[in-house]
Design goal:
This protein has helices at residues 11-17, 31-37, 61-68, 80-84, and strands at residues 5-7, 23-25, 50-53, 72-75, 88-101, 109-121. The protein is an alpha/beta fold. The strands form two sheets. It has a three-stranded mixed sheet with strand order 1-5-6, with no helix packed on it. The longest helix is centred in the middle third of the chain and has 8 residues, at 61-68.
Length: 124
């Protein structure tokens, strides 16, 4: 049996950020399409209100300060930045084949290819 992970989609936060200066993603993937769907435009990393960092992103004291000033930081996977915020990947791995949107729990979101992901501990 596969573990069932409940994920809350960030749409309310992203919609609020739409009034800001835009987004910047340091990863490839669907982020540009997702953000443009709610009116966010690509921006420079230093001025973007929404920033996506991928696995392995280096730690910097600047990220905590930007978050405190209202930036929305999206972290993908394990990285020194994620660890600096208290998210730590453990040695135990789980197979993930889909998610449940907390706002629409009856809408199945099934991934084409399951992933083996570390079980993360989160900050208190």
């Amino acid at each position: 049996m596969q573990p069932h992970i409940r994920v809350s989609i960030l749409w309310p936060l992203l919609a609020t950020a739409a009034f800001a200066s835009g987004f910047h993603s340091f990863t490839s993937g669907p982020w540009a399409e997702i953000f443009s769907a709610i009116g966010l435009q690509p921006g420079a990393p230093e001025s973007a209100r929404v920033v996506v960092l991928g696995p392995g992103a280096g730690a910097s004291a600047g990220w905590a300060q930007r978050v405190e000033q209202g930036a929305l930081l999206i972290l993908e996977g394990e990285s020194p930045v994620a660890e600096s915020f208290g998210f730590r990947g453990g040695s135990q791995r789980v197979r993930v084949a889909g998610i449940t949107d907390a706002r629409r729990p009856k809408l199945p979101i099934i991934w084409r290819e399951p992933l083996e992901l570390p079980r993360f501990s989160t900050p208190p």
